[in-house]
Amino acid sequence: MHLKRFADATAYEAPNHWGVTGLRLQGFEDGGPENQWVGFSQFLPGGGAGPDATPFEKVYVVLEGEMTVSVDGTDTVLGAMDSCTIPPGEVRKIENRSNHVCKMLVVIPYPEGGRP
To answer: Using one digit for the tens of pLDDT, what is the confidence trace for 74-86?
Structure first.
């Protein structure tokens, strides 16, 4: 088992994101997961990411608040404990359009070749 306490999570900056603080809960470390990493994102009101796409899928799980996910001109609002998978190559934009902080888990596979 690889244990990592929340107090030991490290901050990271994601490209094309604004109004967000990201913490790496698991991944990119000795003994951590081999196939994916897990981030915890706290989006301020008005915060978001995109529009862009990645060559790998990602999973969003909203823990608290709400997040609007826009794909192909369609907006979908995720609330607490809602989740979605964004497939490889799909252009998405996410925005916290509420007046509350949105807390969200993000699960993303490592780039080709596995854990760096």
So the answer is: 999 999 999 999 9
SS3 6: helix
6-109 topology per CATH: Jelly Rolls (2.60.120)
20 closest CA partner among 77, 60, 71: 60
Q: Tell me if 109 sits within 8 A of 36, measured CB to CB.
A: yes
DSSP, collapsed to helix, strand or coil, labels residue 86 as strand
**How many other CB atoms are there within 10 angstroms of residue 12's CB atom?**
15
Taking the model in full, what pTM does it have? 0.93
At residue 111, the pLDDT reads: 81
The total of other beta-carbon atoms located within 10 Å of residue 16's CB is 10
Token readout for 44 is 């301020």
Predicted confidence (pLDDT) per residue in 93-111, tens digit: 999 999 999 999 999 999 8
Q: Measured between alpha carbons, how far is 11 from 86 in angstroms, rounded to an integer?
A: 23
Tokens of 13: 């900056």
